[in-house]
């Protein structure tokens, strides 16, 4: 029994493990029990906290509902709209929109400050209203005072008006009586006027018939007078001009002449004259009477020197010949009228500027001038001071197909007729541009050859180069002739005789 009790048997091992397992299980159970107790305590604490939080949340929600109700904005699900300031469908967006919309110029960032600003603004407006109300009461009092004064004046005006109406009725009655008297007088005057008017109309008809008859006679006589004057001028070529000066000496070698006028006669260089024979039948008749043209080069007090710019070898200038220019006369100036195209040198280019220079250089003036476009350049009318009406080329409107040129030519023709008729009425002589240039001693200075200019040919002098590229130059050899002063019968050049021209003798 003793031996068997000292051995470790399976029961002992099993009991050991069972005891150990029991101890472990008991420890684990204790631990789980402690954890369970802690969890139960924590659960109770959490339930208590959740209950308190739920109570607080319900309180806050009730407060929010009350606040939204007070604000006036309450949307579904109470969407506050934090972070969505521009969303008007949520509370904060709607509140900010109210502040901006109803706050106006005093809008603030919050409801309370905005309400305070609005209240202040309202108080200010109330003060202003009260002030205006007081002013209104004062003005009403003043108005009542003025109304009383006005009523007093109206009563006075009414009294005066009643008196004026009474006086007016008396005046109207008197006026009507006067009007009735005047109407009777007017009726009588009208009857007399009708008789006088009838007599006047009869007299006017008789006068018109007589005037028409006289105008017919005047027109016929005027036309006859014009025809007779034109025929007389062509047949007699009567001159009414007098010479401006006399040639006292001539030097044909130097082509110079001397005149008996000078600076005391207000003569200036560059004035040109036409030269007439000393036995002339009157200057200023036609260009056929002119034998030469001269231009003044130097002027002294009582004499002047002039160069010969054009002369006739068959009619040489001699002492005693007279000179004349329609542009110049000692001690006075003249007016001239011009119509038509002005071509002074026949090159086909109009020289209106050169004409102005010629007129100005001789101290004369232009009182009427029609431009190349048919418009007036100067228009003072033909008067007794107009010496000549100078007629240039008058274009024919029917010879051009261009409407612009035809209009210009028509204007020139109409103004030519107007000036010509006016010249006849004033007794002003009408001359051509060619005669005018001859009278003033003008010589064209064209040196440049313009092919076809003026519609005339231009023959180059012998010895000049040909104008054509492939044209035959011709025979350019010398003729072998020698000047007569070196011919075989004379030993040398002629010597001076030592005698002086009679024109220079004392």
Description:
With 506 residues, the protein is α+β, with helices and mostly antiparallel strands. Among the domains are: 35-67; 73-107, no CATH class; 243-325, FlgT, C-terminal domain (Thrombin, subunit H); 327-448, BRCT domain (Rossmann fold). The protein is 49% helix and 12% strand. The protein has seven helices and eleven strands. The protein has helices at 2-5, 10-71, 91-103, 111-236, 352-361, 403-426, 433-439, and strands at 245-251, 256-259, 272-276, 290-299, 304-311, 322-324, 335-339, 365-370, 376-379, 386-391, 429-432. Strands 1-2-5-4-3-6 form a six-stranded antiparallel barrel. It has a five-stranded mixed beta sheet with strand order 9-8-7-10-11, with helices on both faces. Strand 4 and strand 5 (304-311) form a beta hairpin. Helix 3 (91-103) packs across helix 4. The longest helix has 126 residues, at 111-236. The termini are far apart. Residues 453-477, 484-494 and 502-506 have low confidence and may be disordered.
């Amino acid at each position: 029994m003793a031996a068997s009790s000292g051995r470790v048997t399976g029961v002992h091992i099993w009991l050991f493990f069972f005891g150990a397992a029991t101890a472990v299980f008991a420890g684990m159970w204790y631990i789980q029990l402690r954890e369970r107790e802690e969890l139960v305590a924590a659960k109770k604490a959490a339930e208590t906290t959740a209950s308190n939080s739920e109570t607080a949340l319900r309180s806050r929600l009730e407060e929010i509902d009350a606040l939204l109700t007070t604000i006036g904005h309450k949307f579904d699900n109470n969407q506050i709209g934090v972070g969505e300031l521009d969303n008007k469908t949520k509370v904060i967006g709607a509140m900010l929109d109210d502040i901006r919309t109803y706050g106006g110029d005093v809008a603030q960032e919050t409801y309370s400050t905005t309400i305070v600003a609005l209240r202040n603004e309202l108080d200010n407006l109330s003060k202003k209203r009260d002030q205006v109300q007081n002013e209104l009461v004062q003005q009403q009092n003043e108005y009542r005072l003025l109304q009383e004064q006005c009523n007093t004046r109206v009563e006075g005006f009414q009294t005066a008006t009643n008196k004026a109406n009474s006086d007016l009725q008396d005046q109207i009655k008197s006026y009507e009586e006067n009007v009735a008297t005047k109407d009777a007088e007017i009726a009588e005057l009208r009857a007399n006027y009708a008789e006088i008017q009838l007599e006047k109309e009869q007299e006017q008809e008789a006068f018109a018939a007589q005037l028409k008859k006289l105008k017919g006679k005047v027109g016929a006589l005027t036309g006859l007078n014009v025809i007779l004057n034109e025929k007389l001028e062509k047949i007699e070529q009567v001159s009414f001009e007098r010479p401006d000066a006399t040639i006292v000496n001539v030097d044909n070698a130097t082509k110079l002449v001397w005149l008996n006028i000078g600076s005391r006669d207000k003569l200036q260089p560059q004035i040109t004259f036409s030269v007439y024979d000393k036995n002339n039948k009157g200057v200023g008749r036609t260009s056929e009477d002119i034998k030469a043209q001269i231009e003044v080069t130097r002027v002294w007090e009582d004499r002047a020197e002039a160069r010969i710019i054009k002369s006739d070898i068959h009619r040489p200038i001699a002492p005693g010949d007279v000179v004349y220019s329609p542009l110049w006369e000692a001690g006075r100036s003249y007016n001239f009228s011009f119509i038509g195209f002005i071509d002074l040198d026949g090159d086909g280019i109009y020289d209106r500027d050169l004409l102005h220079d010629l007129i100005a250089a001789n101290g004369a003036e232009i009182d009427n001038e029609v431009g190349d476009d048919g418009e007036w350049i100067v228009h003072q009318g033909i008067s007794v001071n107009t010496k000549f009406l100078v007629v240039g080329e008058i274009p024919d409107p029917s010879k051009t197909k261009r409407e612009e040129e035809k209009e210009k030519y028509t204007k020139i023709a109409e103004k030519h007729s107007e000036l010509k008729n006016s010249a006849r009425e004033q007794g002003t002589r009408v001359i051509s541009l060619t005669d005018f240039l001859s009278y003033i001693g003008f010589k064209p200075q064209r040196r440049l050859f313009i092919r076809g200019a003026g519609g005339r040919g231009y023959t180059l002098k012998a010895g000049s180069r040909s104008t054509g590229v492939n044209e035959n130059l011709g025979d350019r050899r010398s003729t072998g002739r020698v000047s007569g002063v070196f011919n075989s019968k004379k030993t040398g050049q002629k010597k001076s005789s030592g005698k002086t021209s009679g024109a220079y003798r004392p």
